[in-house]
C-alpha cells in the first residue's frame, strides 16, 4: 500500500530519537518536518485512490485529539472539496433513478452545472423544482459501491497486518465503518434517518415538543431513491470554512464576534446532541465540519 512509506518513516524516526542523542527541541523539529511530509503524501495518495480512502481521510481530519495538526488541516479538503465528476453523469443518474429516463426539465426549472460540493460517496447540486422550491440534490457517484466495499476490505487487511505498529488499533474502526457503509450507500435509509434526527432535535428527552436548537433540512417526499436524495436547500457556510470567512471580514480570532459565535455554536450542538442521545438514542454519527452549516 502507498501509505506504508509514511509508517516506515515514523518507525525510523522513533528508533533514531530513542538513542537519546537529540535534545527535545531537535526531536520536536524532526517530528514537525515528518508530519508535514507525511500529511502531504497521505493527502495526495487519498486523492489518487478515492473511494473509501476518502472516508478514512475525513475521519482523520476530524480527530484533532489523535492526529497532528498537519494531518487534520491537510485532509480537511476531503470533507467536501474533491474533484467533481461530470455533471452529465449526475444528470443521467437522476433521470434513471427518479424520472424513468425522462429529461430533468420534467422535474426541475433549473439545475446548477457547478456542484455545491463533492465528497467520497456523493456530489451535491443546487436546483429549483418546477413549483419554485430551491433544493439540494445529492447524487451517489456512479459505480462507487463495489469500489468502496473493496477499499474497506483492503483497509481492514492493512490495519490487521500492522496492528502492533499503528498508534491506534484501527481494525475495529474499519469493521464498524464497514457495517455503517450499507446504510450510507442507501439514500432511502438516509432519508429516514434525517426524519428521525429532525424529530429528535425538536423534542426534549422527556418527549415534549420544543424549539429545535438547529435546523435539519428535510427530504422532499417522493423525490428520494437509493442513489438520489432531493432535500430542502439551506444557504450557509460549512463550519470548516467559517474561520476563513471571519478572518476576511476582519474579525480577530479571539474577538467578541468570534467568541459569541463559538458560544452559540457549542450551546446549539450540545443541546441537539443531548436531545438525540437522551431522547430516542438515535444520533448523527458523522458530524464533521463539512456537514455542519
Q: Could you estimate the helical fraction of the residues in percent?
A: 40-55%
CA(first)-CA(last) distance: 35 Å
Q: How many DSSP helices?
A: 10
**Strand-pairing-aware structural class:** alpha+beta
- Series of H and E elements: HHHHHEEEEHHHEEHH
The radius of gyration is: 22 Å
What proportion strand? 5-15%
Question: Which regions are unreliable across 5 or more consecutive residues at pLDDT < 50?
Answer: none
Major sheet size, sense and barrel closure: 6 strands, antiparallel
Provide structural commentary.
- The chain has 293 residues and is α+β, with helices and mostly antiparallel strands.
- It contains 10 helices and 6 strands; from the N terminus they run αααααββββαααββαα.
- It has helices at residues 4-17, 24-49, 52-62, 69-74, 87-98, 144-161, 171-184, 187-201, 239-248, 256-278, and strands at residues 108-111, 117-118, 122-129, 134-140, 219-224, 228-232.
- Strands 1, 2, 3, 4, 5 and 6 form a 6-stranded antiparallel beta sheet that branches.
- Helix 1 (4-17) runs antiparallel to helix 2 and helix 6 (144-161) runs antiparallel to helix 7.
- The mean pLDDT is 88.
What are the defining features of this structure?
6 strands, globular, about 10% strand, 6-stranded antiparallel β-sheet, alpha+beta
Present the secondary structure layout.
Layout: H1 4-17, H2 24-49, H3 52-62, H4 69-74, H5 87-98, E1 108-111, E2 117-118, E3 122-129, E4 134-140, H6 144-161, H7 171-184, H8 187-201, E5 219-224, E6 228-232, H9 239-248, H10 256-278
Give me a quick take on this structure.
By secondary structure, the protein is an alpha+beta fold.
Amino acid at each position: 500500500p502507498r501509505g506504508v512509506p509514511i509508517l516506515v518513516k515514523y518507525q525510523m524516526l522513533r528508533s533514531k530519537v530513542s538513542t537519546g542523542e537529540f535534545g527535545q527541541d531537535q526531536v520536536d523539529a524532526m517530528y514537525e518536518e515528518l508530519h508535514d511530509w507525511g500529511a502531504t503524501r497521505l493527502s495526495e495518495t487519498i486523492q489518487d485512490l478515492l473511494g473509501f480512502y476518502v472516508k478514512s481521510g475525513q475521519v482523520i481530519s476530524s480527530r484533532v485529539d489523535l492526529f497532528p495538526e498537519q494531518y487534520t488541516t491537510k485532509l480537511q479538503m476531503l470533507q467536501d472539496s474533491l474533484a467533481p465528476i461530470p455533471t452529465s453523469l449526475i444528470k443521467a443518474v437522476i433521470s434513471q433513478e427518479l424520472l424513468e429516463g425522462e429529461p430533468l426539465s420534467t422535474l426541475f426549472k433549473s439545475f446548477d452545472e457547478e456542484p455545491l460540493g463533492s465528497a467520497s460517496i456523493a456530489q451535491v447540486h443546487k436546483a429549483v423544482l418546477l413549483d419554485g422550491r430551491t433544493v439540494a440534490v445529492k447524487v451517489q457517484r456512479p459505480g462507487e459501491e463495489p469500489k468502496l466495499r473493496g477499499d474497506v476490505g483492503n483497509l481492514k487487511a492493512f490495519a490487521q497486518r500492522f496492528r502492533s505498529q499503528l498508534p491506534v488499533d484501527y481494525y475495529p474502526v474499519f469493521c464498524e465503518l464497514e457495517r455503517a457503509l450499507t446504510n450510507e450507500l442507501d439514500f432511502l435509509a438516509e432519508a429516514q434517518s434525517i426524519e428521525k434526527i429532525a424529530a429528535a432535535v425538536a423534542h426534549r428527552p422527556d418527549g415534549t415538543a420544543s424549539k429545535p436548537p438547529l435546523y435539519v433540512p428535510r427530504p422532499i417526499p417522493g423525490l428520494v431513491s437509493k442513489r438520489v436524495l432531493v432535500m430542502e436547500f439551506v444557504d450557509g457556510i460549512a463550519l470548516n470554512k467559517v474561520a476563513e470567512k471571519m478572518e476576511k471580514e476582519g474579525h480577530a480570532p479571539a474577538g467578541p464576534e468570534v467568541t459569541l459565535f463559538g458560544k452559540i455554536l457549542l450551546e446549539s450542538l450540545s443541546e441537539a446532541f443531548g436531545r438525540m442521545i437522551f431522547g430516542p438514542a438515535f444520533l448523527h454519527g458523522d458530524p464533521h465540519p463539512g456537514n455542519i452549516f
